[in-house]
Amino acid sequence: RLAPAAAQLPRRAFGSGGDPRGHLNPDGTRPEAEDAEDYHDPDPIDHTPTLNLVKERGQTWVVSGDPPKTFGQLWEDIPQDHVPHWHRSRLLIWGNYKLLMKAEYLFFYIPTVLILGLCIPMFTTIYALEEVVASTMTVKVTGRQWYWVYEVESPTDDGDDDE
Q: Could you tell me the superkingdom of the organism this chain comes from (predicted)?
């Protein structure tokens, strides 16, 4: 004797307890996806508190529904006795101006000086190449498809050497 098809399926430890349609609403539609804090709610306006609007002097103001709280009511869980006084120099820990200046020198001025130190000699070398220099010999090298051609031109000896 064979068991019904639903009974042959293994029973799941989670979900609908074995009912293949147990995750659906009774009318067969899928339930709306919900988040723990209704963050992805289809209509967040449903969860917005009503605003207490007051018209005064031609302006519309939003007024709190609660009366203003005192300092003690705001911090009732945290005792406010013997609160230490922190000197303003404590800001040097978080907003250390001297350290920020060192970082600025380190990451901006030092690379700028290095780049200028490399560029200035480069420009002098480039402009020095344009000057004509008297030479005693000229070498002309021509590259052909399979070989090089060298032509050496040197001034002739006129016998004007001072000996």
A: Eukaryota
